[in-house]
Amino acid sequence: MTRSIRIVLILLLSSGFARARAETIKIAIPSTTQAVLPFTIARDRGYYRAEGLDVELILVSAPLASRALLGGDVLVATVGGAGLPPLLRGSPFKFLFTAYNRAMFWLYAKPEIRDVKSLKGKRVGVSGIGSGPDSLLREMLRLHGLDSNRDVTVLSLGVMPQIFAGLQSGIVDAAMLSPPVTFKAQEGGFRELVAFPKQDLVELQGSVLVRDASLQADPVQMEKFLRGTYKGFLQMKENRAATVPFIARYLQVNDRVAASAYDQVVKPAMTQDGTLSQEMQARAVEHVLKRLDLKEAPPLAKIFDFSLTRKVASELQARHWRP
Question: Residues of the chain whose pLDDT is less than 70?
Answer without folding.
Answer: 1-21
